[in-house]
Design goal:
Elements: H1 4-29, E1 31-37, E2 43-49, E3 53-57, E4 66-70, E5 77-84, H2 96-110, E6 122-125, E7 130-137, E8 148-156, E9 159-167, H3 173-184, E10 186-188
Antiparallel strand pairs: 1-2, 2-10, 3-4, 4-5, 5-9, 6-7, 7-8, 8-9
C-alpha cells in the first residue's frame, strides 16, 4: 500500500538523484558559473574553469569594470574582459556589425607589430548573436611579455564584451576556455 509518506520519500529520492547528476555534470566540465554585478546594468554571467582566479577592477562612477581572469598557478595566460554599455542607450552598440568593426579596427592596429601578414577574423555564435575574434603573434616580445594575443568582442544583452587574452601558448586553455565562455555569456536583470 502506498502511503503519503512513501510518496514523499520517493519524490525526495528523485530530487536527490536529479541534483546529484546535475552536480556531476557541472564538475565533469570543470566550469563554474560566475556572476559579475554591473552598476545599473544587471549581472554578467560567465562560465569559466573553476580553478581560475578572478579580480574585478571597478573604477568610480558609471565606468565599466574590467574583469581579469588567470590560472590559479603560474602566468600562462591573462584574460581581460570589459563589459561596455552605451551611456546614451544606443541600441546598435553591440550589434554584430559594430562588433565586427571594432575587431577589424583592433586588428589593423595590431598587424604592424605581428608576425602574421594576414589574419582571418573568426566568428562564433553567442547566446545573443555573432561574436568575432582573432589571434596574433608579437614580432618581438620583451622578456616576460606574452607572445600571443587574442582580441574578441560579442554582444551580450545590452552589453558589448571587449576581450583581450594574452597567452604564452598559442593553443592555451586561456584562449579556448575564454571563447567558450563568450559563446555562453549571459546578462540578467533582477
Amino acid at each position: 500500500m502506498i502511503t503519503a509518506r512513501t510518496t514523499i520519500m520517493a519524490i525526495f529520492l528523485c530530487m536527490c538523484l536529479t541534483l546529484t547528476s546535475f552536480a556531476v555534470e557541472q564538475s565533469a566540465s570543470g566550469d563554474q558559473r560566475r556572476s559579475f554585478a554591473l552598476p545599473q546594468h544587471g549581472t554578467l554571467i560567465l562560465s569559466v574553469p573553476s580553478t581560475w582566479k578572478q579580480i574585478v577592477h571597478q573604477p568610480p562612477g558609471d565606468i565599466p569594470p574590467t574583469i581579469t581572469l588567470s590560472p590559479d598557478k603560474g602566468d600562462e595566460f591573462k584574460v581581460l574582459i570589459t563589459p561596455l554599455w552605451s551611456p546614451k542607450k544606443d541600441p546598435t552598440l553591440n550589434k554584430p556589425e559594430k562588433v565586427r568593426s571594432l575587431i577589424d579596427n583592433d586588428l589593423r592596429g595590431m598587424l604592424p607589430s605581428a608576425v602574421e601578414q594576414q589574419v582571418v577574423i573568426q566568428e562564433f555564435n553567442g547566446v545573443y548573436g555573432t561574436g568575432y575574434y582573432f589571434l596574433v603573434t608579437d614580432k618581438a616580445p620583451k622578456p616576460g611579455e606574452y607572445p600571443y594575443a587574442v582580441r574578441a568582442g560579442v554582444g551580450v544583452g545590452d552589453l558589448l564584451l571587449s576581450v583581450t587574452v594574452l597567452s604564452r601558448l598559442k593553443n592555451s586553455e586561456g584562449i579556448t576556455s575564454t571563447i567558450k565562455a563568450l559563446e555562453e555569456a549571459r546578462q540578467i536583470y533582477e
